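Bug #77: duplicate submission created two jobs. Keeping one. Sequence:
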Amino acid sequence: MTEDIGLFDALYSQRAIRYFKPDPVSDELVHKLIEAATKAPSGGNRQGWKFLVIRDQATKDVIGDYYERGWEAAYGKDNPNPPSIQSHVRRSADYLARHMAESPVLIMACIEHDGGPSTMGRGSSVFPAVQNLLLAARGLGLGSCLTSLHKRYEDEIKELLDIPENVETAALLPVGFPADNARYGPTRRAPVEEVAFREKWNQAW
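Kept job's structure:
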């Protein structure tokens, strides 16, 4: 259900939602999400993004298995020294890793390329679109989050989804209506004074 919220309300309250109701998400809503994504900027306005919408349960099961294995390798039992992560974030991320396949919809955000190595510049032409999609989800009363652990199995995922060689996956976005225990913001972030400098590095804002 669309919420009548302003841009800054969306910016200040959009957060990672990892728990979803089983309710279906209509094609109309998914279309709005992707349309919002396509309003983002991209290098040279090339608009090389592509979005795979995945509903088939068998396909979601395979992707979910790869994702869970990626989680275990990065943050779970397969990593003796996992990165530090806030406990509440770890709990919700661990839940999502084990229940990714239950998400009503998975959207795989991809970017076409010229065959060169993956670079930050390539990502700059797709991640603004991903952020637009996340903000649109907030405005439509949907939840989502940006994930990328599936990329540990990039080749297998691409084969599964028939993704051509000149396309790289960038993000896997589970989408659904937030579960009763999932809430939008306000978000907690470092203050501007800790992340911004004036004129030169480490010169206080």
